[in-house]
Specification:
Elements (H helix, E strand, L loop, with lengths): L11 H10 L12 E5 L11 H19 L3 E5 L1 E2 L3 H14 L9 H15 L2 H9 L9 E2 L3 H16 L3 E11 L4 E3 L4 E17 L5 E6 L10 E4 L13 E3 L6 E6 L12 E3 L5 H10 L25 H14 L3 E14 L7 E10 L6 H9 L4 E3 L3 H10 L4 E2 L1 E2 L9 E3 L7 E3 L3 H12 L10 E2 L3 E2 L2 H4 L2 H4 L10 H6 L4 E4 L4 H15 L7 E4 L3 E2 L16 H8 L1 H10 L7 E2 L2 H22 L3 E2 L6 H26 L3 H24 L7 E2 H18 L4 H11 L21 H24 L10 E3 L9 H8 L5 E2 L7 E6 L2 E6 L6 H26 L2 H6 L2 H27 L1
Parallel strand pairs: 1-2, 3-4, 9-11, 15-23, 22-23, 24-25, 26-27, 28-29
Antiparallel strand pairs: 5-6, 5-14, 7-8, 7-10, 7-13, 9-12, 10-11, 14-16, 17-21, 18-19, 18-20, 28-31, 30-31
Helix pairs in contact: 3-4, 9-10, 16-17, 17-18, 18-20, 19-20, 19-21, 19-23, 19-24, 20-21, 21-22, 23-24, 25-27
């Protein structure tokens, strides 16, 4: 007995376990063509949020569809070690236990980090299973796995050997909370309300002063010069002079450089080479002293004088007060400006001079530019992201790849001798020793004499190898799996990591394999709330995905998300969408339940109405299939789902089942029933990638299936030719049916009463659907007449007029009165519209769309008046 209602709770775990037990998700190389997706690896300690839901639902749709189409589908899951985020969580946990990271050895800290990862890692992957994600879980990878780590080390050594990696003393972005450097791409610029401080510096040996403007008064303790433009006549008399830095009382030179904008600020610029990128360049040009006043946590060091140990923002307030007391502070103005913050910790970034490792980018980007913009080997969807991609690659700077962290891939640089100037690069410490002995000719060197660089590599330096290293393509490039699965097919990700990850994977693909890493990149939009705010825990506007799935079912949530996820556009999430998805599940189940309640007869003949209904639906199905395939070609996943939704909700459930449904308590003929089930099964194949649980449940309930006959591996419907005219003819017939039903409803004529129907057939309508009209309208067969039928109600479809005699069915006099009242109202309405349209001033000044609307009102009113008059005449 089939339940009347669909209950996801009774279905989802059952079928997910079934799919897993039968190994449908697992892939090994075979004779089929491979279709491969690698998951954008979420942070190992992360939990599922709405962005993950959208991204992974789309990936699951693509991978399930590929299985149905006969590809050897492989979706590789995994997680990223997320150096900054994970280390921050471990440090916070240790601090809560009274343990400081600084008191631990690297090995002790890493033990805590691995314990944390083992406890919290992988939660998000388990949550993805609730969503229905059909990943090859046997291939689950982690960026710190031995084989993936080995690939990272090998790549570093290879790039260093090519002269592409170097160690340099550079100005970098410093995150004082994570206490590490960041790449330019890891810095977000946000508008903040700050202040502009105007400060006087006294000219040495004079009472004269020069005024500068700064947003960071605390940095004056690190000033090395005051700079003026050599063409600025206002300050020509200051050339060669010196000024005294307030509070510090240091004497610094006034220098000249055309970098200074005469029109900006006061025209005088304070130069602090240790704390500003542009100041550093000027400092190098003029050989200025570099005075670094900040500790790694952005507190002031001993060069900060009596502010030593205090946080930079505390000092900003206190130094402002001191400057005011000294009479050096001229004024303070409010100032809205953009401030760089850490993408991970949100701490305000400090420019800092530091020794770091860099990867040269100038040459490595060239194949990646051509691949997307010239050769189109790789296509971005939506295409407008090509411009974003081009801009970044054409303005790229060397990649700062070192991080002052312990959690991550330790840089394979080994120092020997005195200090940290002499080093070798090697994959192992043993290889490093051999190289060091070769260089020094010192055979007494031992492993203990080598010290590995304590820094770790940027997390993205492992992620950029992801499509390659997952199949061991770095360490073992000729292996069977790498040759079979690589390049991968589609990448689904968010546009916010186009620089961090997507572009870098393309760099790596061409650098290490001479091949693209994937063929297509589909960028999803961001999930926002109804107020267009990005969903986040801090705003409290993001629902718990697990709770949503418990409430609406996984299929309902998947459908709700995708129905509103237009390609590349942000998704305005509304929980009502999930309710719509759940209701769609109920509609499909109700239709299935209806068919299963019919008695099937092998003896009765198939009605003509059922024959034409099946022929029509197959044509309608094929037309929808063409649209669906076209949508997938352009990665318009939402449009593909909407086409399926309309096909099943409107055409199959709304029309087809009504056409073939047997009379009350009567059996259905076996031929029609068999064809109906075939139509249903075809629908399930189209819908399965989007709603896998519901579709597998119905598929397996229709009849007993072996594991080889499961829906998840069924054969996708094939495109065949179809009759477009048949579809158009039905649209006409559907309007006729609607006209009959409207008369029944308006005049309260019971459906059990058979109506006579005749037509003034000016359109020469195809009679093929007459049997359908007769069944769904409960009318006699359509009789063709040459003139209007008296004593009948009528309605028009194009130039055809249909007549239904009403003698004995309704009160004719009352009907006349109703029609006359409606005619009077419509004529009055027409008069008011025509009055507007005859007003030249209105016609000449109103917007074109308004005029168009008024003319349509006029045409509609004229048509209605004609119909009402015809109906009155007929009575």
């Amino acid at each position: 007995m089939i339940p009347n209602k669909y209950n996801p709770e009774n279905v989802e775990d059952k079928w997910y376990s079934y799919w897993m037990e039968n190994g449908y998700f697992h892939s090994t190389p075979n004779e089929k063509e491979a279709y491969t997706i690698v998951i954008p690896p979420p942070n190992v300690t992360g939990v599922l949020h709405m962005g993950h839901m959208l991204n992974n639902t789309i990936q699951d749709v693509l991978i399930r569809r590929a299985r149905l189409k006969g590809y050897n589908a492989c979706w590789v899951p995994g997680t990223d070690h997320a150096s900054i985020a994970t280390e921050a969580k471990v440090v916070a946990k240790l601090k809560s236990e009274g343990i400081n990271k600084e008191d631990l050895t690297r090995e002790e800290f890493l033990k805590h980090a691995w314990d944390w990862t083992d406890k919290h890692g992988g939660i998000i992957l388990e949550q993805l299973k609730k969503l229905g994600a059909s990943c090859d879980w046997e291939r689950t990878a982690f960026t710190m796995d031995d084989n993936l780590s080995g690939a990272v080390t090998k790549v570093f050594v290879d790039l260093y050997g090519k002269g592409l990696i170097y160690r340099g003393y550079r100005m970098v972005n410093w995150d004082p909370e994570a206490k590490t450097t960041l790449s330019d791409e890891e810095v977000e610029f946000v508008e903040k309300q700050g202040n502009l401080y105007y400060i006087n510096y006294q000219i040495e040996g004079s009472d004269e002063k020069v005024m500068i403007a700064t947003t960071r008064p605390e940095t004056l303790l690190g000033d090395s010069a005051i700079c003026i433009n050599p063409t600025d006549e206002r300050f020509a008399h200051l050339k060669g002079k010196k000024v005294i830095v307030p509070i510090a009382n240091r004497v610094i030179p006034i220098i000249e450089d055309e970098y200074v904008d005469i029109e900006f600020g006061t025209g005088c610029l304070k130069i602090t080479p240790a704390h500003d990128q542009n100041d550093k360049l000027i400092g190098e040009k003029h050989n200025l002293e570099v005075i670094d006043i900040l500790n790694d946590d952005a507190s002031l060091n001993s060069l900060g004088m009596h502010y030593e140990g205090k946080d930079r923002f505390v000092v900003r307030k206190e130094i402002t007060k001191e400057l005011e007391e000294l009479g050096a502070l001229v004024k303070v103005e409010q100032h809205l400006h953009k401030v760089g913050v850490s993408e991970r910790t949100k701490a305000v970034i400090e420019p800092k001079i530091s020794v770091q490792w860099f990867l040269k980018m100038e040459d490595i980007v060239k194949p990646a530019l051509d691949a997307v913009l010239k050769d189109e080997e790789i296509k971005l969807y939506p295409k407008h992201y090509n411009n974003t991609y081009r801009h970044w690659l054409e303005n790229i700077r060397d990649w700062n790849i070192s991080r002052q962290l312990w959690w991550g891939h330790q840089i394979p640089a080994y120092f020997y001798g005195e200090g940290l100037e002499e080093y070798v690069i090697a994959e192992t410490k043993e290889e490093a020793l051999v190289k060091a002995i070769e260089i020094t000719k010192n055979t007494k060197l031992t492993i203990e004499d080598l010290t590995q660089d304590p820094d770790a590599l940027d997390t993205w330096f492992s992620s950029w190898l992801w499509p390659i290293s997952l199949f061991d393509g770095i360490k073992n490039p000729d292996n069977e799996e790498f040759n079979y699965y690589y390049p991968t097919n589609d990448l689904v990700t968010g546009p916010d990591i186009i620089f961090f990850w997507v572009a870098r994977m393309i760099f790596a693909g061409y650098e290490f394999t001479d091949k693209k890493p994937f063929s297509n990149v589909y960028f999803t939009g961001l999930v926002r709330d109804k107020q267009r705010r990005k969903m986040s825990k801090s705003l409290g506007n993001s629902p718990d995905p697990i709770e949503l799935m418990q409430k609406y079912g996984a299929d309902g949530v998947r459908t709700g998300l995708l129905l509103s996820a237009a390609a590349g556009n942000d998704l305005m999430f509304d929980e009502d969408l999930c309710a719509q998805g759940r209701n769609f599940s109920s509609k499909i189940w109700s239709g299935f339940s209806l068919t299963q309640g019919w008695e099937v007869s092998e003896t009765i003949e198939q009605p003509e109405s059922s024959k034409i209904a099946i022929k029509w639906y197959n044509a309608k199905f094929q037309k929808a299939l063409v649209e669906i395939e076209a949508s997938f070609e352009q990665y318009r996943i939402s449009e593909a789902l909407m086409t399926i939704y309309k096909l099943i909700y409107d055409d199959y459930s709304g029309w087809f089942l009504e056409m073939i449904k047997p009379a009350y308590q009567q059996p259905i003929d076996a031929v029609t029933y068999k064809e109906t089930i075939a139509c249903l099964e075809a629908n399930l194949k189209l819908l399965h990638p989007f709603m896998p649980f519901l579709t597998e449940e119905i598929w397996q309930t229709i009849s007993e299936r072996t594991p080889e006959q499961a829906l998840i591996i069924a054969e996708y419907p094939e495109l065949v030719s179809f009759d477009e005219k048949l579809i158009a003819d039905f649209e006409f017939a559907a309007e006729v049916i609607s006209g009959i039903r409207k008369i029944r409803k308006d005049k309260k004529i019971a459906f059990k009463d058979i109506l006579e129907l005749s037509v003034l057939d000016n359109e020469k309508a195809n009679p093929i659907f007459n049997a359908i009209v007769q069944k769904l309208g409960n009318t006699s067969d359509i009789a063709t007449v040459s003139d209007a039928v008296e004593g009948a109600l009528s309605f028009r479809i194009k130039s055809n007029e249909y007549f239904i005699p009403i003698a004995g069915a309704i009160d004719v006099e009352a009907e006349k009165a109703t029609l006359e009242e409606e005619l009077k109202y419509t004529e009055g309405f027409l008069k008011s519209v025509q009055k507007k349209l005859s007003n030249e001033r209105f016609v000449n000044n109103a917007p074109e769309q308004v005029i168009t609307n008024e003319r349509k009102k006029e045409a509609d009113a004229l048509a209605k008046i004609e119909t009402l008059k015809a109906s009155l005449k007929a009575l």
